[in-house]
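REQUEST ID: PR-0412
SUBMITTED BY: lab tech R.K.
PRIORITY: routine
TASK: structure prediction, single protein chain
INPUT:
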Amino acid sequence: MTIVDVQKKFTGGQLALEKILNNMGFSTILEYQVGKYFIDVFVPECNIGFEYNSKYHISKTSDERRKKDIQERFQIPLMHLEAKTMKDKSRLKKMIMEFAEKSSTNQRRLD
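STATUS: complete
OUTPUT:
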């Protein structure tokens, strides 16, 4: 199930990532707002977020600052996915599962 604000426009990469996550059984929220930031695709049951970086994406430094801020202030781990990574679906699904499991384990340690 996807929770979405119908007013917003989403990129093809966001929608493709959302579809993969939904097919894996995750509920998702597109453009989830935390503070002044928006997370491309948020998975509430795991409290994790995904950012889709198209081949035109260039700002790695600001991405890292933003990622660190979101993780520290809101305790939401973020995974950045490059467009080229999205092409190998089985590898992508494995990366997502490993990230979700690792994030879940780390969250339990904090509780």
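NOTES: Strands lie at 2-3, 28-34, 37-43, 48-53, 78-82.
REVIEWED BY: pending
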